[in-house]
Amino acid sequence: MTDAPEVSLSELPDWLAPVAKMAPSVRPEQLSRFLPPDSGGRPSAVLILFGQGEHGPELLLMERARQLRSHAGQPSFPGGAVDPVDGDPEGEGPLRAALREAQEETGLDPLGVQVFGVLPRLYIPVSGFVVTPVLGWWREPSPVRPVDPAETARVFSVPVADLVDPENRRIVTHPSGFRGPAFLVSDVLVWGFTAGLIDRILHFSGWERPWDRAREVPLSARA
């Protein structure tokens, strides 16, 4: 087991200050209506990695392979289940898991990532995952790529400016009755758990701009 990454606020860029300030105070019910059950659920973690790119602040995402059984073709944060090698799922395990999974999926060097916050655990009912969102600053960027094309179709970064642009905001609707925020960015539709988290981070960090919630995108029953 590797040493757990230290949560540190030192030397963050000024533009990340609103996210760092938001993280310790936000409550789980402010992020999602799906909260972890009292018992059960598989511990997991995702890495919400902010970097400084050619077009300003950006967020790292990946697109899942279309042949997967679960969440096929959907954009997502890097992440996955907390394994025994990661340690205590109630302690530092999710931090290790977020960085380990990100390395396994995108090839990034975890030594270049500074963990600066952890958001409350949330629940994904369709998969049974209890998810810890880990906030990271890509202090020393490294090359990324789909490490296993059978699992990951592509790895890409989205400028925060595109995420907050009202022209790129949508509401998705699903035959199941699900309605939620979405983003049309980088030639993909980001929706579901990932879009919901991005939406709440933008809102509680004060980055959100007014957008038209009447602009809907219907999803097929297979989505």
TrEMBL record:
Q: Which residues form the Nudix hydrolase domain?
A: 40-185
Which PANTHER family does the record associate with it? MITOCHONDRIAL COENZYME A DIPHOSPHATASE NUDT8, NUDIX HYDROLASE
- Name the coenzymes or cofactors required: Mn(2+); Mg(2+)
Please name the SUPFAM superfamilies in this protein's record: Nudix
Give the start-end ranges of region Disordered.
71-93
Q: Which UniProt keywords apply?
A: Hydrolase, Magnesium, Manganese, Metal-binding
**Species this protein is from:** Streptomyces silvisoli
Q: What domain of life does the UniProt record list for this protein's source? A: Bacteria
Q: What is this protein called?
A: CoA pyrophosphatase
